[in-house]
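Try this one yourself first.
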């Protein structure tokens, strides 16, 4: 049976004005289907993870919008959602890929930043204007996601001055103002978790190297084999 992925896109309190979560989530789901993963797109809702144990992978494409208790509930109404998300991922039953603005989502859930191994810091984190962006594997890193990957080029935003947890394993960085800024990392906590700072909008997924990065991330998250640099299988 093929692996199933739930692509959770922001709406309401988790949909900001800078990102078209629905369009980007659908583009990402298309890439997943292209590599044999059954992908379903669903908006954020307190009940969105009620059937979470039926999926192997959760992809979060959401940001920080406007909390409106009259529309989608207050913090208390959302607490079971966040508790369930943490339990599913920390328990190892659900792998997690947090994409781009997900570094700044679920701010009402104190455990989210720890779960994904880092965060966007308001007033500190930033990005230069969107355009053709280049990302390269972190020096000295031989992680399965980046082993043999020459780099990634895509029309995208380059998040800078994110704050990964010191225990996270940085996989890709981008250069800005003479400094290297981590943009992709593996979280150190229980379960398989990757944060991927690429993917501002659908133009990111037009890049073959960006799609290859995503394929590698998903394959690792789902526990699949990997090609080594020599072309031989690697666990």
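Now uncover the answer:
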């Amino acid at each position: 049976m093929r692996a199933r992925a739930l692509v959770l896109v922001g709406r309401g309190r988790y949909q900001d004005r800078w990102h078209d979560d629905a369009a980007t989530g659908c583009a990402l789901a298309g890439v997943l289907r292209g590599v044999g993963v059954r992908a379903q797109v669903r908006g954020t809702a307190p009940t969105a993870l009620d059937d979470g144990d039926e999926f192997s992978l959760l992809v979060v494409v959401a940001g920080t919008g406007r909390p409106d208790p009259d529309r989608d509930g207050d913090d208390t109404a959302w607490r079971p959602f966040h508790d369930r998300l943490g339990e599913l991922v920390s328990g190892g039953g659900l792998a997690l890929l947090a994409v781009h603005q997900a570094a700044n989502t679920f701010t009402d859930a104190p455990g989210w930043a720890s779960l994904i191994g880092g965060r966007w810091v308001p007033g500190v984190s930033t990005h230069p204007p969107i355009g053709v962006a280049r990302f390269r594997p972190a020096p000295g890193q031989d992680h399965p996601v980046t082993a043999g990957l020459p780099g990634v080029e895509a029309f995208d935003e380059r998040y800078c001055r994110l704050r990964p947890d010191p225990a996270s394993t940085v996989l890709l960085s981008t250069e800005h103002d003479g400094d290297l800024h981590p943009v992709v990392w593996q979280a150190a906590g229980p379960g398989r978790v990757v944060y991927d700072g690429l993917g501002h909008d659908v133009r990111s997924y037009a890049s073959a190297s960006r799609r290859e990065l995503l394929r590698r991330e998903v394959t690792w998250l789902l526990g699949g084999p990997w090609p080594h640099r020599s072309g031989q299988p690697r666990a």
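Discussion: The domain at 4-234 is CATH 3.40.50.880 (Rossmann fold). The helical segments are 21-34, 69-72, 75-90, 112-116, 208-221.
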